[in-house]
Amino acid sequence: MRSTPSLLHGDTPLDEVAADLRRRDWTVLAIDPAHPLLLGAACEARHHLLTQRLRPASTGRDDGLRLAGLRGDETLWLDDPACGPAAAGLLQAFDPLRVGLNQRLTLGLASVEAHFAHYPVGAGYARHLDRFRRDDARVLSLVLYLNRDWPSDGGGALRLHLPAGCHDIAPAQGTLAIFLSASVEHEVLPATQARFSVAAWFRQRPRPV
Ligand code: OGA
Ligand code: MN
Fold it and tell me: How many domains are contained in the chain?
């Protein structure tokens, strides 16, 4: 079996990532925009849009958000049989990050779930937390952007609502935002062009009831 090219370079400062998360609950990493996995994933996401495999993110507990017009993205889980090698490669590539952060932060990160997301022009996602009220499995949220040459006036920022104020992150290819699912409220601002990403969550095992 061929090994998956690592998303992170050998010298990726996982210590710094962990320190940021400990100190302020969020961080941003820059991955090479021309990384083969990113190029493949960007291509795959657009292919899924063209072949109408993306679905309004409306399953189960998200229904309310969609019906209320709070969320405008359409998604496809990376472990869906319709997904290709880039999706599988990305899922694998997230794992060393999960393990490395687990070692440093002992967060009990047991698994990863991830989906492609496409926000059509003008769509956004209102301010929210990724941790659901009745399901505390999501511990860390990761959003990896797949938009080459994102223009400075393209909108579509990920806006973090932090104690010190707002912080906007442009959805440019290779940018990887990481934040604590339970504490960092965030929103997606409407964009002036189609916006593609992979959203992933590192999950803890559900607590026994
Ligand atoms: C989400 C989300 C942020 C983004 O999918 O829950 O907040 O920038 N996405 O796409
Ligand atoms: Mn979110």
Answer: 1
